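We examine the record.
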Amino acid sequence: MSILSASHLSKTYSSGVRALDDLSLDIQSGEIFALLGPNGAGKTTFIGIIAGLVKKTSGSATIDGYDFERHWREARTRIGLVPQEIHLDIFLSAETILKNQRGFHGKRPNPRLVEKLLKEFSLFEKKDEEVRSLSGGMKRRVLIAKALVTEPKILFLDEPTAGVDVELRKDMWNTVKRLKDEGVTVILTTHYIEEAELLADRIGIINSGRLILVEEKQTLMKRMSEKTLDISLKNPLPRLPEHLSMLPLSLSSDGHTLTLRYSAGERNIPALLTELEKAGISVEDLSTQETSLEEIFINLTHKSETV
């Protein structure tokens, strides 16, 4: 079931820049969806439109069945947002910010939830201090807790771990996994490909305002990944044998290693090893590696730029 459905969303700024170009996307309830793209791809503009911070040029969207413009109040109460930039009232304490945020969203006071979030993000000991006295990492923790204190059905994380320490990044990953278990839908934009690989159920790739691809993470990896087989030879070869030149093989400059590139579904390795044995080429060792999501991402965005 789709909890967020965007249809033909576009945004053109007064400068003429088309930041979002006819984007349609359905996000399923309870999933973790990673939206990947280079700087300026349109990720933050998309989030801004859904969250009511950016006015669309055209298109429509529903959030949990509510039109995000005609029923904006109902729609907004279902969204939590952790933006890239830190915007907090620096003269208030973390505890006060969380309590106020519930009030702003029309939620009843919940001291137990506020305390839980303060402890979860290692803020409890500093809960009474003004935010201006906190470190950048602590302010980021307040921002995340602020987004969660309203108990959103959909949580947008716009580059949430950019520039933060490793400890907070791991805490954030654990929080995302917990939220998924609790049924919260998480939409994550990130420059850290490892986050998408670790957390996402599905991945969308956006470039120049256009959605290039949406795919289940495992399906994407299986369908598009390429494997590399390195064959270490006992004795170096002066050149690649002619009868093997039709295969996607390459020989290292020192003649000690043959490299085969193949898709994950291919099964031509046993035949290749048989051919090597027939040719009297002795194999010393084999090693394989698989294309990473980062390489797939780079390939896809590069292709979209050349279309």
Observations:
- The first helix runs from residue 43 to 50.
- The two ends are 33 Å apart (CA to CA).
- Residues 80 and 147 are 5 Å apart (CA to CA).
- The chain has two domains: 2-222, 226-290.
